[in-house]
Amino acid sequence: MNLKKHLNLEFAKPTKSLILLGATGSIGTTTIKYLKRIKNTNNEIQLNAISIHKSIDKLESIIKEFQPEHIAITDEESYEKFIKNNNYKKINFYKGINGLVELIQNSEADTVLTAVVGSIGVRATLEAIKKNKKICLANKETLIVAGELIFNLLKNSKSPIIPVDSEHNAAFQLLVHQNLAHIHKLILTASGGPLRDKTIEEIKTITKKEVMEHPTWKMGPKITVDSAGLINKGLEIIEAHYLFGLPYDKLDVKIHKDSYVHAMVQLKDGSFLLATSPPDMIFPIAHSLHYPEPLPFPLKEYEEPENWPELKFYIVDEKKYPGFSLCIKAGKIGLSAPLILNASNEVAVELFLEDKIHFTEIPFIIKDALNNIPLVEIKNLDILLKEDKKVREYIYSKYNKLLSLKI
User: Fold this and answer.
1) Nearest to 6, CA basis, from 131, 176, 167, 125
2) Among positive and negative, which fits the CA dihedral 248, 286, 31, 89?
3) Cα–Cα distance, 207 to 22 (Å, whole number)
4) How far is CA 200 from the centre of its chain?
5) Distance between CA 342 and CA 362 in Å, rounded?
6) Complete domains list, the chain, with CATH
7) Of all residues in the chain, what percent carry a pLDDT higher than 70?
8) Alpha-carbon span 252 to 233, nearest angstrom
9) Residues contacting 212, CB < 8 A, separation 6+
10) How far apart are alpha carbons 109 and 76 in whole angstroms?
11) Strands 111-114 and 134-137, how do they pair?
């Protein structure tokens, strides 16, 4: 497979005008900081449109700094509150999940950076592809639940896809100039999350506070929980399968506690290529925005190799991280299994964050959904939305009843 053709990279141009979906999340916030840094330089990028969910308290400063033409507020209650208390006549506002799609339809920006959390990013990404916009993809759920749809649509589009997740962006930089036939294995790294030094017995009594204390990255609550159970890494394997067209037996994960090496490629001759950088999302964000042009300036102070942490790697203990194994299983099954995996995980994480279940119950809920919800082929968006709703209703119905019995 030709990766450049697969990802439509012949159409890639440096971003001049940006739609930032998820502007107040962790990746969105880092992107905003980077845009401020390059403002009034030759590399300046116009922030044409943004979306937020509930963080209307952060919206004023973004408007003042960048004067975006389009703003979507996906939480409808927050939208009504903001519109009631503000009057920006030169800005077009959009409400709810449908507002993401409307924003993309009306914005003239050349690039969409999708940094929203969860499967709500799917419709926005599909619409951006229809509009031939460059896609900087930081929403892994998009490819997990709609990978086949995305790449079928890309065949008749001029939209290039550049991954933004640190591991996938590193893998992209390693693979884009390689003949994929010469690849023995692509290895993504994982910090191991906040539970990496806990025993299986200790995890059984882990507290919510301990789960939320990630040792390396400062992220939103959902991805922090996913990271604790290494489910985020299993989801990333599925995403890598779609992004790079590699079979699952050529994809692997190693725990690397310092998060300095983000991806490795082992060639068939046994040699390794490594992509390294300090653990800071500014590197993949800047790379994806400016691609295919290289950055002519350092993003952080240069760090000489003798100052790097030791490069140590460990295998993933699948007994300790059962959610990781479920992700690989769902990816190999295909059809709607990745969708079932993702939707059930999103609901389970929500229940955990609401203190309704213990952390160790998350993989049990996912396994239940994978075992009991029939598989279908995701032929179009309507089927996708219907199946996604079916999974969520199954989990809510079954586990809310069980939770009420506990009370």
Assistant:
1) 176
2) negative
3) 28
4) 27
5) 12
6) 3-163 (3.40.50.720), 169-307 (no CATH), 324-406 (1.10.1740.10)
7) 98
8) 10
9) 194, 221, 224, 225, 228
10) 24
11) parallel
Beta strands in 62-110 (DSSP E): 70-73, 92-95
Tell me: pLDDT of 45 over 70: yes
Quickly state the pLDDT bin for 118 (edges 50, 70, 90).
confident
Q: Provide the residue type at 344 as one letter.
A: S
Task: Count other Cβ atoms within 10 Å, centred on residue 314.
Answer: 12
Residue 269 scores a pLDDT above 50: yes
Give Cβ neighbours of residue 68 (< 8 Å, ≥ 6 apart).
Answer: 47, 48, 49, 50, 62, 91
CA 321-393-53 angle, to 5 degrees, is 80
Q: What pLDDT is attached to residue 406?
A: 43
pLDDT above 90 coverage of the chain, percent:
83
Distance in Å from the first CA to the final CA of the chain: 54
Distance CA(278)–CA(88), nearest Å, equals 40
What does the block give as tokens for 112? 């969409």
| Cβ atoms of residues 166 and 279 within 8 Å | yes
Backbone angles phi, psi at 184, to 5 degrees: -85, -45
* Range of lowest pLDDT (96-100, 149-153, 192-196): 192-196
Pairing of strands 92-95, 70-73: parallel
Q: What average pLDDT does the chain have?
A: 93
What is the 3 state secondary structure string of 376-404? CCCCCHHHHHHHHHHHHHHHHHHHHHHHH
Question: Average pLDDT for residues 316-344, to the nearest whole number?
Answer: 96
Average pLDDT in the 234-243 region? Answer: 96
Nearest Cα neighbor of 64 from 99, 43, 36, 34 is 36
Distances (CA, A) of 322 to 114, 210, 281, 337, 364: 29, 18, 27, 16, 9
pLDDT at 399: 84
